[in-house]
Amino acid sequence: MELRPGHTGIYRPHDANGGNPTDRERGDFADAFATAPIRVDRTYRIAPLHNHPMEPHASVASWEAGRLVVHDSSQGTNAVRTALATLFGMPEEDITVHSPHVGGGFGSKGTPRPQPVLAALAALHVGRPVKLALPRRQLPAVVGHRAPTLHRVRLGAAEDGTLSALAHEIITHTSRIKEFVEQAAVPARVMYTSPHSRTTHRVLPLDVPSPSWMRAPGEAPGMFALESAMDELAEAAGIDPVELRVRNEPDAEPDSGRPFSSRHLVECLREGAERFGWHTRDPRPGARREGRLLLGTGVAAATYPVLVSPSTAEATARPDGTYAVRINATDIGTGARTVLAQIAADALGVPLDRVALALGDSDLPRAPLAGGSSGTASWGWAVHQACTELLEALGGFDGSVPAEGLTVAADTTDLAGAESPYARHAFGAHFAEVQVDTVTGEVRARRLLGHYAAGRILNSRTARSQFRGAMVMGLGMALTEGSSLDPASGAFVEADLAAYHVPACADTPNIAADWLDEEDPHLNPMGSKGIGEIGIVGTAAALANAVHHATGVRFRDLPLTPDKILAGLAGEGD
Questions:
Q1: How much is the pLDDT for 573?
Q2: How far apart are CA 171 and CA 348, in angstroms?
Q3: Is the dihedral of CA 540, 210, 15, 419 positive or negative?
């Protein structure tokens, strides 16, 4: 089963994921494109993708004196508690959901799933605690997936490569029971200056499992298509791919006209190119060969919005000189527990070992879920505010702490929920070197480099882990990951890790990530931007562009599996 532009039933949704407008148009795209000296009109396709966190979706439920207690693998316990309260007709205060340690989610645990409900029902029936862990093969059917996307990208440019017309039109699928629209055309509204543009989303309802969030929904597939098209434009214009992107750098956000709070994409491209050794690159496709291996390099830009949600937190000073911070944040392997304690210690002006942090419990002060690269910005803002106000309150006691301790609660609703006059985004550049085996069709990444501008980096170790981990997911998206739908049942055929191939350590030998020291006063008290997702954005395009540079053949259908590569080398593709 594949998406087709003329499929019966395709409709225009009210909006795309995140409340993004379905369509946007500026100027007269049709005329500008028709009269452009250089034109690119290409279609790109991405297969369905699956989150597959290492830890399965699992819950333990028990009923204790009329209270429901659930230990759940979730990205946000508040949503799980609300869902359980609704389904069981109970007050939320009679339900506690614990998620102190979560082994990954990538979006699939950001929405309440069936297992806590079923575990609670079973525990109620048998009168004892019940554990339910979903088998790996059941995950594609019940925990969401990244829907397949079909992209048409049209670029019109002058002889010097400056864009005059840009269109990104996508088609995706959704289930018939719940609409989810991957906002894949949205990055085209942010990236490059063009006086005439068109971005649209269309969706096809099918009898398939409901799609949902997967790391960088919208940006990950959208930037594969846009950055591949930019590479094709660079070739058509005879311009270096890095230089082409620099020439189309906007002064303000193209879609809204708002000034950027900070934008250092050009610096990421320049510094990343220097580190990668881009200047030594022979621009001719197919020029490098080692025996049966063809070698190539590619580049792609990356962006991700700065998102923040209102949050609450409490900070307590104890008579023994220690501090307790309470917030219902969730650490899904990102290092939230570490960085929130660091934020608290910094705001309080005390060593880290004097701060005790409690998180991952629905009885703690309410906080948003872990997702959208918004966790540290949202939770950290509340923690910083609570600790700052606690210091001020302690001043009224001449710095001493009352015997019963002193607690201050903070709520960032008014500040974090306020509309910003600035367009706030993180940016980055990805560089890739690949080898293509002309006998087997196998593509392997020799090097990957990501260079980012993501505000103030609060912890270099956890940040590098997030950047590199996301780049690995981008590599999987490009080379190994993809699934197909059974046309008879609507079920995914590749339902486990034997058939759905995530990258292993042997597939990722040399991945480096670095960043600029970016100052941005228009974000939050920490000056931080989200870093959990930008690493996947653009990585697939950099790899695909490198494969084209190696082979001279353009591949526009992900993943780039050996069968597609061999067919392309045999002249059966583009």
A1: 59
A2: 50
A3: negative
> Which residues does residue 428 pair with via DSSP β-bridges, in sequence order?
302, 452
- The pLDDT assigned to 572 comes to 78
Question: 162 — phi, psi (to 5°)?
Answer: -70, 135
Tokens of 290: 């080692």
* CA distance linking residue 68 with residue 90, whole number of Å: 9
106: left (phi over 0), alpha (psi -120 to 50) or beta: left
- Strand 323-326 with 355-358, pairing: parallel
Q: Which pLDDT score, from 0 to 100, does residue 396 have?
A: 78
- What ranges make up the beta strands (E) of 215-268? none
**Cα–Cα distance between 154 and 86 in angstroms, integer?**
47
Q: How far apart are CA 303 and CA 301, in angstroms?
A: 7
Predicted TM-score (pTM) above 0.85: yes
Residue 276 pLDDT greater than 90, yes or no: yes
CB-CB neighbours of 288 under 10 Å:
17
Which residue, among 70, 109, 73, has the nearest Cα to 90 in the 3D structure?
A: 70
Residues 169-202: tens digit of each pLDDT: 999 999 999 999 999 999 999 999 999 999 999 9
β-pairing verdict for 196-206 and 24-26? antiparallel
Backbone angles phi, psi at 80, to 5 degrees: -65, -45
Beta strand segments in 176-311, E: 196-206, 288-290, 293-305
Q: What is the mean pLDDT of residues 143-148?
A: 98
Query: Of the residues 159, 182, 533, 572, which is catalytic?
Result: 533
CA–CA dist 477, 536 (Å, integer): 9
Q: What is the DSSP letter of 147?
A: P
Both tokens of 230, joined, read: 């930019």
Say if CB 467 and CB 537 are below 8 A apart: no
Could you confirm whether 227 is annotated as catalytic? no
Q: Give the single-character DSSP code of 354.
A: G
Distance from C-alpha of 318 to C-alpha of 320, rounded to nearest angstrom: 5
Which of 215-224, 351-360, 412-421, 543-552 is least confident? Answer: 412-421
Sign of CA dihedral 215, 218, 223, 225: positive
Evaluated on CA atoms 82, 88, 91, 97, the torsion sign reads negative
Mean pLDDT of the chain: 97
Percent of the chain with pLDDT over 70: 99
Domains in the chain, please, with CATH? 15-50+145-306+422-569 (3.30.365.10), 58-142 (3.30.365.10), 312-416 (3.30.365.10)
pLDDT at 1: 64
Higher-scoring residue by pLDDT: 417, 528? 528
pLDDT tens digits along 396-419: 777 789 999 999 999 999 999 899
